[in-house]
Design goal:
Elements (H helix, E strand, L loop, with lengths): L1 H25 L2 H40 L2
Length: about 70
């Protein structure tokens, strides 16, 4: 699940960068701004996936330690 978020986030971030560059090259501010929004949203989505992975890993680690101490 979190891996999918990271992948989709990275793809959206990449597409956003491309839109920003295309908007700058053509002088299309709407496209540039849309690209900026997509890039930031993708970066946020990717970071959320990374945090989710970290939390799951920590939870699994704590479960393992709890089982050892029973």
């Amino acid at each position: 699940m979190a891996e999918g978020k990271r992948i989709r986030g990275k793809a959206q971030e990449t597409m956003g960068k491309a839109k920003e560059k295309a908007g700058r090259a053509t002088g299309n501010d709407d496209l540039r701004l849309k690209g900026t929004g997509d890039r930031v949203e993708g970066k946020t989505r990717r970071a959320a996936g990374e945090v989710e992975d970290t939390v799951k890993g920590t939870a699994e680690e704590l479960k393992g330690k709890a089982r050892k101490h029973k």
